[in-house]
Amino acid sequence: MMTLRQLRYLAAIAETRHFGRAAALCHVTQPALSMQLQELEHMLGCRLVERRRNAVDLTAEGQEVAQRAAAILAAVADLEDYARREKPPLIGVLRLGIIPSIAPYLLPRALPLLHDRFPQLDLRIRETQTAPLVEELIRGDLDLIVAALPIDRPELETLNAFEDRFLVARQTRAGARADARMEPAALASEHLLLLEEGHCLRDQALSVCGALSSNIHMAFGASSLSTVMHLVANGYGITLLPEMAADMERTDRVELIRFTDPEPVRTIGIAWRRSSSRRSDAAALAKVLLDARA
Questions:
Q1: Collapsing DSSP states into helix, strand and coil, what is residue 276?
Q2: Model-level pTM greater than 0.85?
Q3: N vs C: which end of the chain shows fewer Cβ within 10 Å?
């Protein structure tokens, strides 16, 4: 009889298309994952994967089985949520996904609050970009994700936690007023430094700047916000910095300037599967995040 473990391994292969990365995602050795997939193939009587030198492809049968496996795994996760629906929020295991432009700035303040208020919580954290977090949430690998909203997926529900203003970060300039605000038109002569594709912060900054000016020169490719800020400090351009990151990323060589009203913001919130019973957990977590933000 096939097992949920085998289906999870197949789902990991479908996501990563790589045995090593799939094994790491499942916290098992690569030989153990490969053996379980071979047993699943033998049980079903068909090939599910095509093993290549540096990658893995799913066969047509493998794609169909992986799609059905994702639905089964999500249903199992929802069944587990249903069984715990009468319990107080944030008790037991919670698999939480969070994006890189939030995790290092909010978690250090939020985790002590979670520990104090919910001592029975067993928190498992996964940090990566929004798109993979959403897919992992939908197929049941995660229970909640913290990300910038909106997330336009009909399978999910979301709850706003707070708004995070955008600041302009630029190399410190002599004589600049501490209370100065930047007019949108002032960005037209600047080089805008952004994260590489796949980061929602990049898309949000493009959206903000696209609305502010059509003449902005843009440069791309940095993999972390800290890298972008080092480039700003050395005079390579400016960037839009979320206010929650200001304390950690601020240096003497960078000045942070607020926009004139109305200031652009991003909405930070929590998402969960519509079919699950995680609304109370999401509401409790949102309150912790709001308190941590304050």
A1: coil
A2: no
A3: N
